[in-house]
Amino acid sequence: xxxxxxxxxxxxxxxxxxxxxxxxxxxxxxxxxxxxxxxxxxxxxxxxxxxxxxxxxxxxxxxxxxxxxxxxxxxxxxxxxxxxxxxxxxxxxxxxxxxxxxxxxxxxxxxxxxxxxxxxxxxxxxxxxxxxxxxxxxxxxxxxxxxxxxxxxxxxxxxxxxxxxxxxxxxxxxxxxxxxxxxxxxxxxxxxxxxxxxxxxxxxxxxxxxxxxxxxxxxxxxxxxxxxxxxxxxxxxxxxxxxxxxxxxxxxxxxxxxxxxxxxxxxxxxxxxxxxxxxxxxxxxxxxxxxxxxxxxxxxxxxxxxxx
Length: 308
Description:
Oligomer: single chain
Helix content: 40-55%
Number of helices: 11
């Protein structure tokens, strides 16, 4: 049986993965950095699964594990990676948004590092309770020669649990990763500025046009870096917004919870990648700054995903 640890507590995205893995026959344990000891807790992902899992703090984690998946925020990745590599797992997976965390994981874990691109949406309702909001695609890949058999075992468990998981080549994974970056660079800031669910990109013309501009610009940066995207970034953005229409982006959820956003790893990262190129990602830089300014009054505001 595949032994998997989900790092990041009962967060929305991690809970969806945990639910799929349990349904797919894996043994799953959740690691919560703020917890002491271990306890058996009820975990629910509305629309997918409900059951009991072991939730442990770092000092009580019951390894060894085959796979550790780091469902933390990008800005928490450094500390989480440092603690996670001490678990001595066979494989570590970064599903983080944007650029930076996977590179850091590769530095620390070497050939045991892999990445994941996630296209499903979920919202945390309360502790260890989340709502699944659509989308099923999960892409796995590694760039430093990880154990592909183990990566495929992970993919099969996720697939058996209801997610559309696939394993790609290192080159294809880099392309998929930049496609998701293009999608996030559009959906995340536009939903934050609209203070709305992902559906705003389909229903509102101005929001749709801004999202298209951002996705196309990120795709252009990828092209200039020699990365061929597997799909038109604008169409991928529209498709994702339709499939996860009822979802609040992670940026909206972060602001509603008074947390820092991950946009420095998304839009600002796109700008930084473009600085040495012929055409710079000015729209990405501008929207990053716009959300930073807007965050002064958006932080702590009631999320559009909170039930009335």
